[in-house]
Amino acid sequence: MKDLSFKKNQMSQILYALSVNGIIHSLIYEFYFDTNYLSSVPIGCALLALAFNYISLKFNFHIEMYGNLLIFLFYLGVTLSIVFAGGLDSAILAWLAIIPIICSTFFSMRSTVSWCLIATITSIIVGLLPSSFFSTLNEIKMEDRKTFQALLFFDAIIICSIISIFIKKRKADFENQLDHFRQISFQQAKLSSLGELAAGISHEINNPLAIIKGLNKRIERSLRDSPYHEKLERDFTRIDETIHRIGKIVASLRKLGRAEKSKGFCDLNEVLKDLVNISAEKLRNHGIRLDIIKHNSPNFVQGDEIAISQVLINLLNNSFDEIKEDQNPWIKIEVCHVDEFTTIFHTDSGLGISENIAKKMFDPFYTTKEVGKGTGIGLSISKSIMQKTGGDLTYNKNSKNTCFEVTFRNLEN
To answer: Domain total for the chain?
Structure first.
């Protein structure tokens, strides 16, 4: 959606440039060359194109239909101008070559080839028509012909320069998107490696844990009649709880890094449970209170469980880095349901984000952290992940504290 919006924005800018150019041409034709039909064609096509551009943007027309209709108006203006300016003797004929250039920048190969053929056929038809056909319609006097040709020559240079600038901008945007997708692929590869590592070490960890748990039970039973049993009972319980917690952390890490085909939906409560298993101890050691407010019943939302976990862990780590040195730090995760959407309000004790950073923090590769810190899964990637699932990630600037809203589309029954 962002790419289509970018295309329409750039096409609109090119359209405005061509329309202004056409209006200027009409004025020059009218007052300098003293023409009638030739001066009416550019301004008429320009006004039609501007009106259609306004309607199409308001009603969100499909990009191919939107662009092809605009190109048709440009083609119509150029063709009629050729007719009223002398046919093959008119420099306007060269403007037909601009049409495939614009198409190749914004449209599919099919549209580009189609318009290239149309421009070629038009040139051939103009060449086949008798010169007498154009001599009766030609409104450019012989003494003004050189001035007219020079005007069109310099004008074509200006238009080609404008199109070249937009092509460069389009190329730069494409390269940024390519780097963005490379970063996503790199993070997915790291998570896949994490999954393989977790799968490998889980066996090595779980076996010793099972032995420790068994020995802990055996020692507890052997000391049951001992006078020390009552003093050690709490320690035995803590050992059991620690073993259970280590087991849950390993299982959550294994699930987070596991590379498997997505079901397309997940239980948000299970995702939050894994989030607590992975992060609770680190938060507790730094005195950060974590509150999760949610319904106990299953809450199925659209999206990949692993990708959603990445987003929530990224937000949690960002909060941790910002508030760990504060007094009485806290993080609150609240789950709310509104119609067909579920929203997680991720709020921490921070006092918000400056407007300057808030404007740029969702841009690709933007970070305020030192090199080597963080998960590498930035807010830009997190936002892209959520938008792919039909949801979104936004910053709530109206909140008293630092608050991000993660929106999910609920799974339809």
So the answer is: 2
